[in-house]
Amino acid sequence: MAVIKVTTENFEKEVLNSDVTVLADFNADWCGPCRMLKPIVEEIAEENPNIKVVSINIDDEDELADEYDVASIPCVVVFKNGVEVERSIGFRPKDAIVELLGE
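-> structure tokens emitted (103 positions)
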């Protein structure tokens, strides 16, 4: 499954009301570590059809970044049943991010 771009308008539908685990990548275009993480997040999305992977650009969606206390990026947040259950800040290798999913 491809990474879904999430905005304030579709956050509730795609993340909070999702019936599957959601891996949310909070990022920005200017962030070097975010650019390094992007292909890893895309791989995880392709290899794990049982989860939903979303990307949230904090420059475009600063309200979501504020609401979820995202002060440093990249910030990967795992949501289950609309509730945050795990969080990782900074670049992490693929296996560390997959481990957050607990699948």
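The longest strand covers residues 83-89.
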